[in-house]
Peroxidase
Amino acid sequence: MSSRRSGPFWFSTTATSGLVVGFYEDKCNSDVEEIIDVLCQEEFDQDPTILPALLRLQFHDCFVHGCDASILIDGPSTEKTSDSNGGVRGYEFIEKLKTAIESECPGVVSCADIIAIATKVLIRLGGGLDFPVETGRRDGLVSNSADVNLPNPSMTVEEAAAVFAAKNFSVEEMVVLLGYHAVGKAHCKFFEKRLYENTGEFDSEMDLSLLNQLRKVCPQNTDTTNNSALLNQDPTNNNTLNNRFYGELIGNRGLLKLDQELSRDPASSSFVSALSQNRTLFNVRKAQVMIKLQAVEVLTGSQGEIRKVCSRFN
């Protein structure tokens, strides 16, 4: 594993977030990040889809009350039960990591930090830059499904930009974050109306070969609950993070409405074009914006708690 403080493109949120690189170095006898790194590699080797799973879990957690692991809480009306979080997974893996960490350094490492460290490791395993992860988060004390207000795939660019702006992300940073859709899948319910003319949401500009392909996956007037398609329609992609996703959008081969509109809306199309042409730019901005996402409204110091079990408050 490379140095936690190295990296030519790293920048710090410490001044605004209170997070630091290497927070646990003098707090645990064991190397917390190394333990998580090893377990992530084992999981990724067995199931590479843990990468998009953790990316989604991280994003959905951070956009509701900040990155405080509130999405992990079990209960009849917690964030986990929200319709927006219906397809989120990775909870068991985070609990597995927590159990391993507790056996080596009990009561010290937050579930919120475990999510952040694991996501960072998986990004590296999926072809992204190995950026130093900032730590020192505390776990939240609130988790209500009614508080979940996430950008949805049917939004316009303007509508989504307003949601991201509320979390202090620019349009360009939104385009970068949505580029993490280079990996993962979406169920038919999130895009099938774009496939048929009588739905009011038909996309007449969609690439014809993709349209015909998706109609087979999501036939109209049929139960497609369990049917899904890859978010990144690049046939050469193998669950890796790369900028060819943006090229697919430019070619009208986007699966989700919001993703596709990024390449058509004047407010975002220039960013899509730039990222599609420059893999280094994509890698650098992807790391920088993830560092920023992982610092959204974090709890530090004496705020919140350090949960003993990630799925319930102490």
User: Anything to note?
Assistant: The CA atoms of residues 185 and 231 lie 5 Å apart. The two ends are 33 Å apart (CA to CA). Strands lie at 20-21, 134-135, 185-187, 228-230.
